């Protein structure tokens, strides 16, 4: 058994399969899940695990070259907005409906237990070299 890092075998395996340019949507429990992408649902109960916990765990494992979030996050969820702008200084903002459309092209969707609106971000994988 792994001692550190991501222990969820479904998530660890999905991350190992990602390549340059692949998208990973990290989303709250209310985000509509499109058909197609692989989904790892980590939601246990409302708020567990939190969006911040899952995002920080993924960022420890991935190289990210870009991130996109819903423009509405600033007004509707100041905590998620602060988290995202701190982690991604060049965060791209699009209307929420566009983020939902973009999520259909993600390679992986990781659903958190977050129960606050607009705690969603689409990550674009980079390379480590």
What is the share of helical residues?
A: 25-40%
Order of helices and strands: HEEHEHHEHEE
Q: How much of the polypeptide forms β-strand, as a percent range?
A: 15-25%
Give the low-confidence spans. Answer: none
Q: Separation of termini?
A: 28 Å
- The strand order across the widest sheet is 2-5-1-6-3-4
For the report, how would you describe the main beta sheet?
A: 6 strands, mixed
Write down the overall mean pLDDT.
Answer: 95
How does the SSE layout of this entry go?
Elements (H helix, E strand, L loop, with lengths): L8 H8 L6 E5 L10 E4 L9 H11 L2 E7 L2 H4 L1 H10 L4 E3 L1 H8 L4 E4 L9 E5 L4
Parallel strand pairs: 1-5, 2-5, 3-4
Antiparallel strand pairs: 1-6, 3-6
